[in-house]
Amino acid sequence: MSENGAAVRNTRQRSAVSALLGEMEGFHSAQDLHAMLRQRGERVGLTTVYRTLQGLADAGEIDVMRPPGGEHLYRRCSEGHHHHLVCRACGRTVEVAGPAVESWADRVAEQHGYADVSHTLEIFGTCPACVR
Amino acid sequence: MSENGAAVRNTRQRSAVSALLGEMEGFHSAQDLHAMLRQRGERVGLTTVYRTLQGLADAGEIDVMRPPGGEHLYRRCSEGHHHHLVCRACGRTVEVAGPAVESWADRVAEQHGYADVSHTLEIFGTCPACVR
DNA sequence: GCGTTTTTGACAATCATTATCGTTGCCACG
DNA sequence: CGTGGCAACGATAATGATTGTCAAAAACGC
């Protein structure tokens, strides 16, 4: 029996995924990460990669982005809340913080009586290198 | 020869989809809309519904939202740029405008040299009726 | 070490969206 | 008014990422 159900175990696969994310720059899809782990010789199932990523996302350790195109992209981000400026062409990403936006969103939501507020914001553009 | 390549033809199906969206409140998935058209006796293919919605979205006549859950939701919105405050529980939606956010996003993007800027913003919360 | 419980992982299932491709109907021009 | 080109249509198949399943393996507490 026991009382708490939060028994998160420390497994080789979980470490591998987490470590890989630590070294990567930019966003990668679950399938990308799975392929990379395979190349390194890590034996990890695709299912596990998905589960691990979801777990990390729930724990707030990584960010998830759903670009128009279907695939979910994951990335280890600096902690705290922030948003992303993504290049349409090359995918280059810049983290941006917008305290003003945060408070604006909260304020608007509360004005309408909405509670437990969260939001998603992505900015898309063409980066300097790709403009030419 | 010719001047504009916008040879958009005026078809029964396009009108039907557009008209239906005009009467609907809130967001609906492509498959929803297709089912409703069928119920009305309109004979429209699912493929065409998707194509038409994409066309309308490109033309800026409707809004697309990609909620966590996979389905794309479409809605005829008041013209102009705005965002949505969506209830997690019941889906009730409020349109909100945030000029400050718009300009902030543009400014941030330009500071980083990004051109041709757009953005997506959704606010999620629990509406008053669902809080209890 | 031992038993319990979580986690893993191969595979199948799901399901929205997209591609295909022959057919249909709109539109413009003769 | 008739005709031809060309885009739109639509049924079906294909795609492809994500989720469910469940027996086997591994971790943790003792």
TrEMBL record, chains A, B:
Where is it found, in Gene Ontology cellular component terms? cytosol
Location of this chain's protein in the cell: Cytoplasm
The name of this protein is Transcriptional repressor
Pfam families named among the record's database cross-references: FUR
Looking up Gene3D superfamilies in the UniProt record yields: 3.30.1490.190, Winged helix-like DNA-binding domain superfamily/Winged helix DNA-binding domain
Query: Known InterPro entries for this protein?
Result: FUR, Fur_C, WH-like_DNA-bd_sf, WH_DNA-bd_sf
Q: Which family does it belong to?
A: Belongs to the Fur family.
Asked if the keyword Metal-binding belongs to this entry, the reply reads: yes
